[in-house]
Specification:
With 58 residues, this protein is mainly alpha-helical. It is built from three helices and no strands. The radius of gyration is 33 Å and the shape is rod-shaped.
Length: 58
């Protein structure tokens, strides 16, 4: 019985040592990663909306 009590005390001490304090706070900047949803396509944004006027009217 004494051995079980000692083991329980050791387990309790280990538990208190492990869970006696909260973990360190993690900053919000370290939790968030910002990446563009799609890669930048320069040909996609090279369209000139007035170009069709030049091609069809001249």
């Amino acid at each position: 019985m004494e051995q079980e009590h000692k083991t329980a005390d050791e387990a309790g001490a280990a538990r208190r040592l492990r869970f006696s304090r909260l973990p360190e706070r993690i900053r919000w900047d370290d939790m968030v990663e910002e990446r563009p949803a799609v890669t930048h396509d320069s040909a996609r944004f090279a369209y000139n909306p007035d170009e069709w006027l030049v091609r069809t009217c001249l």
